[in-house]
Amino acid sequence: MYGKAFAPEYQGALTTLSVNSSLTDVLAAGAEQLKAAEQAGEHGEAARSGLAVAEAHRRLGQVREAEDAWKASYRAARDADDVAAMAWALWSGGTLARQRGAFPLARRLLGLAADLGEHGGDIVVRGYSLAGLAETGRIQGDYEAVGRLHEQLLAEARRRGEARHTVWALEGIAQMHRNSGAYDTAFALFEEAAEIAAGADDRRGHAWALRGLADIVSVRDGDTGRALALLSEAEEGCRAMKLSGALAYNHKMRGNVLYRAGRYAEAQGLYELALGEFRAMKEPRGEALSRLGLAKSRARQGQDRAETAAELADLAGVLERIGLRHAREMVARAQAELGLENAGTVEAAR
């Protein structure tokens, strides 16, 4: 039913790149092609090779370089009067904005990208942009608003037999079910995503699906060994492709698994590792979640209650400002778990 996964963001002379190409290889090939296109005055090719450069920088956690690259890609596309290429550049910019925690900007850029994709007759960039909008809402915890859009995009991807997009939609829906406590449904969806990704040779999608399965195996079944094995398998794919963000989230999840198993000192080490990785790539959501895990781990090892209360109160304020509703609820649960419900509030953090 599904063909081999492909990467539509690798365009022009870079279509030979695989969805599993190392990001350092993508960056090198894209930069070389971009330079040649600029020297030849080929604005369209510059826009499309510049898109690959922007995406490689973003996924490597190089925020400033990614910002410069997607904007340059947009300018080149505009000079070439290539509406579809303009849409792809805006999609990249919107995805970067979401990664940086700038959710209003992400929604604006992704909305523009979807409109231009439709205007330019590129259904793929339209679909990716709508998916970006859905993911933005999901990350913020607005499940009611984006659940239907996720389902719609899943149906479209299945109809086209597009493995990579089907895997993305399944994982997003699974995560919402997991966060709502429907572990069995979430597990089945993550499992299907993993199977499709493996069959389509989509290492990135497979790594994220394995991470989701590990989470549920840990929280639902209490099977620490199996969860850690799944995360180790996922980490191999992350390292092979140099997926900095996915690797950081893998380390953070490993911390979660160890914390649930009562292995607090080990969990603290993983949270500290993930925190450093997220800070290096300026990823505020991952940074906040790592701080949360770190605060809980330290509290379980005897940290002063006042220090823990202050850290959780500060985190509550940070997440409130970013607009991460689900993560803010996680802080409230941590305060209750540690008996600190009345020790820190959003107001106290301001």
From TrEMBL:
InterPro entries: TPR-like_helical_dom_sf. Pfam families: TPR_12 (PF13424). This is Tetratricopeptide repeat protein. It comes from Streptomyces phaeofaciens.
